[in-house]
Amino acid sequence: MADDKEREDITVAEFHKKIKDAFEVFDHEANNTVDVREIGTIIRSLGCCPSEGELHDLIAEVEEEEPTGYIRFEKFLPVMTEVLLERRYRPIPEDILLRAFEVLDPSKRGFLLKEELIKYMTEEGEPFSQEEMEEMLSAAIDPESNSVHYKDYIAMMVIDES
Amino acid sequence: MGSGTSTQHHFAFQNAEKAFKAAALIQRWYRRYTARLEMRRHCTWRIFQSIEYAGQQDQVKLHDFFSYLVDHFTPSSNHERDFLDRMFTEDRFPQDSEMEKFGDYESIEVPDNYTGPRLSFPLLPDHATALVEAFRLKQQLHARYVLNLLHETRKHLIQLPNINRVSTCYSEEITVCGDLHGQLDDLIFIFHKNGLPSPERAYVFNGDFVDRGKDSVEILMVLFAFMLVYPKEFHLNRGNHEDHLVNLRYGFTKEVMHKYKTHGKKILKILKDVFCWLPLATLVDEKVLILHGGVSDMTDLELLAKLDRHKIVSTMRHKTRKENGKQVKKEEANQKSSAGRPTPWFLPQSRSLPASPLRLGSLQAHRAGRSSSIPCGAPRDAKELARQVRRSVDLELDRCRQQAGFPVSWGKEEASPCTPEADSGAEEPLEPTQEEWRQVLTIFSASNYYEVGSNRGAYVKLGPALTPYIVQYQANKVTHMLTMRQRISRVEESALRALREKLFAHSSDLLGEFKKHDADKTGLITFSDWAEAVESVLHLGLPWRMLRPQLVNSPTDNTLEYKSWLEDLAKEQLNRENIQSSLLETLYRNRSNLETIFRIIDSDHSGFISLDEFRHTWKLFSSHMNINIRDDCICDLARSIDFNKDGHIDINEFLEAFRLVEQSCSEGNASDCPQTTNTNDNGCSKPGTH
Q1: pLDDT-based confidence at B93, cuts 50/70/90?
Q2: Which residue does chain A place closest to B370, by CA atoms?
Q3: Is residue A71 domain-shared with residue A6, that is, in the same domain?
Q4: How many domains is chain A built from?
Q5: Fewer CB in 10 Å around end: N or C, chain B?
Q6: Alpha-carbon gap: B447 to the closest alpha carbon of chain A (Å)
Q7: Does the keyword field hold Repeat (chain A) (predicted)?
Q8: Contact at 8 Å (CB) between B554 and B560?
Q9: Domain boundary at A30, A65, A85, which?
């Protein structure tokens, strides 16, 4: 029992340092606060993959009583530590991602046309902003066929991550 | 949250709107991907900033060194005294007759086959425009015209006050540009996008025209030409890089000598004087102050206006040795306030750099103070730009204006207008600010400053009522075609390379720290230990845990073999196997300062110094820095660096030993890079040295 507790303590300590590092990257004024708009980036770069809705809930937890537009580290740390300990918002495995694309391509062509991708990404789910859409298109679309071969696309993005 | 997440997702799919869920999944995944890219981008920027900051701290050491030589060092022989004098001859105040000689251009013949631009004086607007066009076509201005232009420039500058006063009733708009650092493409872009200077279009360039970029000469020619053509509308402020000693360190001197092999020295000499005559600040309608170093609680406009600015030759040395009879004695170059603290134009007082109280604050404190000499860049986010407005300093700005007797208006800043632009990515709309006070804007005009894709540049237009309107751009078209991912990768690689260099430079100390975390002598430490150790040695304040995957290739999940990691670093950096390793490391760490000192000693800019000079330099420098190296080691080192054994050291070869050819390597000329060789096996902990 004591061993387990010790192991958990070490883990918590590790998490604390990790969270602090990530937080500090966006702490532009070196006063232990970050703009609330950067919290999503911080959380995601710590290995979590929340949806926009889940992100909003999380932000609500770490915001001040009267939102200032800034999140303080003291509030962020315990909440984020719990998230990491509970392994919440796990990243999506490659095969699941592939299946998601296949759902959007019922005739199993192996690709999605640019217009189709735009339609799905900007009208369904938690829609992309115009900037997000443009950015995705720039990397995903093969200009010759004006389509995204999603299997290759996924493979390329995954390599990028490691 | 249940058992396997796979099952969970699968279950979700089986129900409800499949397409909706699928889209949401893809979006969720994609947003995480971009978040990680964003994090990498920020980390990269932090790396550059902290290394640049460390470089400036380095310069403080140089300044200390010179002060030490002036104040405390007693030469023990004529030889030493002569050597020292060589280091300080640059401080000599040029006599007018000398200036005439250096400005002599009439005797220089322009060959018939010269196809570059020609200038005749007095300059006309067409000449200046033609100059821009010629440079755009990569032509070079003949030395005769360069000297002629500099001569006329000097005559013009001498009559200007310290503070340019501009009024917008004459010109309809005024555009303010920041650091250009030799990046001609950015200047051409600005003129192209914003229009050439004219009586209706005023410009202010806020210093740091030279160094780092490769076309500093051309930028100066263009700026000086327009200044002569439109003296009422075109204004230049001096920056801290308009300084011959800084130029030795950051590349402008090299550029001049490379482009003008015969007349380069003359050009440099007259430039040194021209820089001293540049005005220090520009004031628009008595309301907007434009100053290279920004403002702080020490800024005093009255004092600034009264300085003898010509006496401030360099910010790297503010004293000079007084020699009886031999040299002209120069007084304290910087004016001091009654509290004994100088008020430089080039940097806010709160930063620690030459001629300011030397407070080596931490990088954190520095970031909190946010000075403007480090390129905050024109970041890609409008919101980041808005954040650069510092409320606290506005009060100081107003206070110092009160001091100078100017009326202060507390009007509310109107929201900056935004205009969509034809160029993709060229402009971004600005959020309206809520500031009640006047803003302080940091403007940096050198896009892609660190690396292609690293940042945008910006300029500010002051419209009616002097509301600022900011335009951002990136001069290199290549970046527009890259995806965000590709852009970030390139810049990141550049940053990481610089970081690895730094790590290498502290190999011995790192090994010591790692060993402390390895009590059981397993040869392994955890990633967490690694992060702690690295920060405690380098003090760069970087998010090491975020950077670790890019810096450490480790097969295991959580630990690394530190010795082999350090060896790998060395293999990347070292180039010569015959130079003893730990000494090399010490030199490496101080190479910027050493290079500067060498170039000062090499007063004829030949690129060579003698073995003796090298030994003397190193001895002086190392004793001041408390680096303990035995004499015979230094001799050995000097001899081994003298690669062709002729008693002289080629400065560039010496630096090449430290793989400072990264520029050409990064541009893909891998074959031009020297091959890596193995270093000594136990290089890192040689007994008896330091």
Answers
A1: low
A2: A29
A3: yes
A4: 2
A5: N
A6: 21
A7: yes
A8: yes
A9: A85
